Amino acid sequence: MGSLSSSRLGPTLCALGAAAILLAPGEARADDDIHWVSPGLMLSLSFGDKLNFGLGLDVRYSLVFAGNVSCFSGPRGAVGAFAQASWLNFSSAGRFAAGLHGGVDLRNPGIGANAEVGWTYRTALSDLHPGGHGIHVGLGAIGGGIVDLAFRGTIPWPGDERKPEFTITAGAHFPPMYGEPGLCIIGRPLRVDGRYVLPGVAGAPRRGRERGGRIDETTRAALVSAWQDDARGECASIPAFLALARDLAAVGAPRDLVDRALAAAADEVRHTELCASIAGDLASRTLTPELLPSPRRSGLDRSRELQRLCVESWEDGCLGEGAAAERARRQARGAKAPGIGAALGVIAADEARHAELGWRVVQWCLSEGGRPVREALGEAVAASPEGPAREASPEAEPAAWRGYGRIGPQDIDASWEQNLGLARKTAQVFLSARG
């Protein structure tokens, strides 16, 4: 280790850090993922045998055990592993560490804490300051899930005559150490390899006046972001419904269910256009969400596929789209800006039909799959989220926010709770009828 040259170690760390950030996931995802890999860069100042300045790479794996549900804005807890490599004093010296970490990330107010323990090795700084192994301990603060401020210590291995070393570190991770900030997807999401995925958006300037010229820029930016996210969610539902139609046909579902799934995909095309148009008018840009491909077939046998279709139709249709319909109705009631109330009325009616389709799929899967499907649905109903969907309150002028078809946390909570209560009652009726 002591012979590793600065011409190799420094540029290698910089390249690895840049690659890690550039290759980080580009899609926004809901919080249902429990496994996260978070690379980051760090600057450090160490006190011990010698004052050392460090530039390094820190990579974290986190297993999220609390807060790993979509529409969740509370604390997230995780444990995992870390690995670090630092280039010291722009010389041939380096420090390496690996071990375990764990802590909590508070979504509101956006701070957290992380502790770590493990092994560390520092190469020789000079003939007077040899390298050696040690025990690594650390305690850090997390800001916004990305900024990492830490105080770390190295306890020399027993028998090593080196002084203990203390390090102050500042760094940044992307994606955030404990996962992306919560993004609540209301409606039928697109699942790819167990993750909820949203498409990117292409934008181009356009001529013409902005919609709502009198609103302040902070409110305008919040509205553009909210409507653009809605457009992304609606666009993600297109391949999700196409996949539903494909999978229903594969297990021999009635043609009516397949046709209704295809019709729902066409509805989502219209919803995408409506939401993207509103966001684009506010931003004076042409916004076009990327149409993603449908996910691959599950490869399950028919019995397990019926269980999957039943549970996903309960979660995405009965719950997700039922809540989306109620939410759009509440948004439409407060909308004052031209055309927005009508657009939300269309979305509310369509989402209500999509929720009904979810119930039809659940009923058919129960009739076809028997006890295994009934047990799978029963477990899903019992485990369905107690809390309502939540979003952070934007920094926007309340009257304009409401007038442009947005609602506050209380209405969002109420729309989820109302639909969840009714959906559970209906599901229990279905389960009892086949008990």
Q: In terms of structural class, how would the helical and strand content be classed?
A: alpha+beta
Tertiary shape: globular
Oligomer kind: single chain
Strand content: 25-35%
* Main pleated-sheet profile: 8 strands, antiparallel, barrel
Mean pLDDT metric: 84
Measured on Cα atoms, how large is the radius of gyration?
26 Å
Number of helices: 7
Order of helices and strands: HEEEEEEEEEEEHHEHHHH
Identify low-pLDDT runs.
Answer: 1-32, 69-73
- Helix fraction bin: 40-55%
Tell how many strands the DSSP assignment holds.
12
Strand order of the largest sheet: 1-2-3-4-5-6-7-8
Distance between the termini: 67 Å
Signal peptide: 1-30
Protein name: Ferritin-like domain-containing protein
InterPro entries: Ferritin-like, Ferritin-like_SF
Region (Disordered): 381-404
Describe the protein's architecture and organization.
With 435 residues, the chain is of the alpha+beta class. It is built from seven helices and twelve strands. It has helices at residues 6-22, 217-250, 255-283, 302-334, 340-383, 398-403, 409-433; strands spanning 35-47, 52-66, 76-88, 93-106, 111-122, 132-143, 147-156, 165-173, 190-192, 195-197, 201-205, 285-289. The protein has an eight-stranded antiparallel beta barrel with strand order 1-2-3-4-5-6-7-8. Strands 9-10 form a two-stranded antiparallel sheet. A two-stranded antiparallel sheet has the order 11-12. Strand 7 and strand 8 form a beta hairpin. Mean pLDDT is 84; it is low at 1-32 and 69-73.
